[in-house]
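Human: I hope this is not a bother. Would you mind checking the protein record under this note? Thank you for your patience.
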Amino acid sequence: MVGKSRSLFLVSLALVAGLAACDGGGGVQPGVVNTSAANSSRGETGRVMAIREVPVRGRSSGMNDGTLVGGGVGAAGGAAIGAATTNSVGGAVVGGLLGAIGGAIAGTAIDSKSTRRGIEVTIQKDDGQQVKIAQPDDGDVQMGDRVQIVYDRNGVAKAVRDTAPRRD
């Protein structure tokens, strides 16, 4: 029984690793879509020239809501089933581990397929270059706005309304 549980655990672990390596498909990954600039520097500003609606994918790597919820539900269900079928604490622990892995796999697969409403913002930068940035539509950026291009800690670009006074 222990050998079978161990092999199921290893198969589940391999599935998690394989799923983590997959790309979610569908939608545009947030950040810079394309740019005519050879090197993109930080602290850029420009004007919004065009906005079009695009589907934007959620986070493509790491822990996400689907992984956490699926893992939690799977662990609880697996522990209950493992305890009921084996009448032992060990069965509950193994069932909980297998349920958590299976639930996390299912939650990640479901969450990676989800997209939300986003926009692709075309920006004419002050240096003359054009850049397109895909980002969630939070209503902050409108046609003609002056924007700053900011980057999060993962290097993903986003256009935000520039509220600083411009010195021309």
Notes: Residues 110 and 140 are 29 Å apart (CA to CA). The domain at 26-58+116-168 is CATH 2.40.50 (OB fold (Dihydrolipoamide Acetyltransferase, E2P)). Strands lie at 31-35, 44-57, 115-125, 130-136, 146-151, 157-161. Confidence is low (pLDDT under 50) at residues 19-25, 35-41.
